[in-house]
Amino acid sequence: MHLAYPAVLAVLLFCTGLYGVLARRNAILVLMSVELMLNAVNLNLVAFDVWLRDTLHAGQTLTLFTIAIAAAEIGIGLAIVLLVYRNRGSSDIDRLRDLAETTDAADGEPQPDTTAEAAA
Asked: Count of alpha carbons within 13 Å of 48, Cβ hemisphere only?
């Protein structure tokens, strides 16, 4: 099997995930797009491990670590999204700008961002 087939598939997966991260407004869809990008990386790791015929299977081992990190990332990410949804009533990423804090130059204390409140 040629290395080009899984590499092209990984590029397509990564580009689809990148488009999802940049274009989506829903936080859950953004997390799913990040998972697509991580799966593209995992596909490349396994494909190059098989292509190089590594006796230690370092690519497959690194893929297992990446899957474990992705599982932890999605668990924490979903917990944050659920808390934001409970507090705000929406998981729209553009509406999360209300959570930003600005610092006052005079005393250095964080002040709530009033630009979104003034616009609304």
From this structure: 14
